[in-house]
Amino acid sequence: MKQFLKFIAYLQIIGIILVVLGHSFHEYPDGEMGRTLPVYRMIYSFHMPLFMFVSGFLMVFSARIKTRSGRPGVMKFIRQKILRLLLPFTVLTLVTFIPRSAMSGIADDSIEMTPEALFNSFFYGDSLVIPFFWFLQASFILLAFNYTVMTLGEKARVNNVTLYLTVVLLFVLLPVLPINFGPFFSINEAVRLGIFFALGATYSRFAGTLDRLIPWTSPLFLAASVLLWVALFFVTEGTQWIRACSLAGIIMCVSVAKLMERHGVKVFDHLIGSNYLIFLLSWYCNVGAQQVLSHLVELPWWCYTVLSLVSGIYIPWLGYRYLQSHPDSRWIRVTAFLLGQSIKKTR
């Protein structure tokens, strides 16, 4: 089995570009930060489900390639994810809380500088200092839950098909149950997006069989998946069936990524590895290029969008490159640790 799957790296890059782009319509003059734009709504139909799909895939893929050398137990795995996801969340929340609270005249919603507001910003997905960090909480829940279930299932010698289909069915049913999953630690988002995580894990486990059945690299298949995604978007938008549109969007992106890998399209190669740091730091660039700059300089709305997109991708990318190019500096290693980044010492 390959130790590195380039198409997954491409999926991560496609996903993070869509995330930054989705956060870059703030100055569109509709009074709703671009939410009325079809391109905005279509991006939001599948870009976070795509991230969950990739997370599920990588959880299973990483566990399988580590089987011979000793895959981590449940508690070790959870500790790893605390350091990878929740430590950066905590650090950046603390660093940003006071400046964010002081931006009440610029930000879309205010955060009071009180202990209660700080507590809520750690534990409630609708009160976060950096709004889209709910993804870190939801990802942690899904990783911990699914890894535990799948590890226990394998130890109990449950048939793999049965085990994975059961997890998929669970996340199909959870969102439609008459249960109020609230915003505490973004559990509502974990429930809403869990199906895509489970599908990513299932695809990773049975990729050999599924890849023989699905013509991912066929241009006709790609065209059909694009048409299906567009059609489902206009039919299911605003309904509970939007998950079908999200799945079609994921299939479309997998086809694109596999075609890029097959034909050696390297336009995204320079971004490989930096997607997580882009996710963590792009908010600062988005705010600076839009909400702050718009108070200082009057420009056409699309200028703020372009600045937000380019800075949101490439300023964190430059930070990633700097971290990777100074692996022997103690301060760089500490910074990388706090941000959940992996760097290798050269000596």
**What structural class results from the helix and strand content?**
mainly alpha
Compute the number of helices: 14
Q: What is the residue-mean pLDDT, rounded to a whole number?
A: 92
Tertiary shape: globular
- Count all strands and give the number: 0
- List SSEs in N-to-C order: HHHHHHHHHHHHHH
Task: Please compute the radius of gyration using only Cα atoms.
Answer: 20 Å
Can you summarize the main beta sheet?
A: none
Helix content bin: 55-70%
Terminal Cα span = 30 Å
β-sheet strand percentage: under 5%
Query: Which consecutive residue ranges, at least 5 long each, have pLDDT under 50?
Result: none
Summary?
This protein has 347 residues and is mostly helical. It contains 14 helices and no strands.
Explain what you see.
It is a single chain. The protein is mainly alpha-helical and 347 residues long. It is 67% helix and 0% strand. The protein has 14 helices and no strands. It has helices at 6-22, 38-44, 47-65, 74-101, 115-123, 134-155, 160-173, 187-205, 207-213, 219-236, 242-263, 275-292, 301-325, 330-338. Helix 1 runs parallel beside helix 12 (275-292), helix 3 (47-65) packs parallel to helix 6 (134-155) and helix 4 (74-101) runs antiparallel to helix 6 (134-155). The longest helix is centred in the N-terminal third of the chain and has 28 residues, at 74-101. The protein is globular and about 60 Å long. It starts with 5 loop residues before the first helix and ends in a 9-residue tail after the last helix. The mean pLDDT is 92.
Identify the notable features of this structure and list them briefly.
mainly alpha, 67% helix, single chain, 0% strand, globular, 14 helices, 347 residues
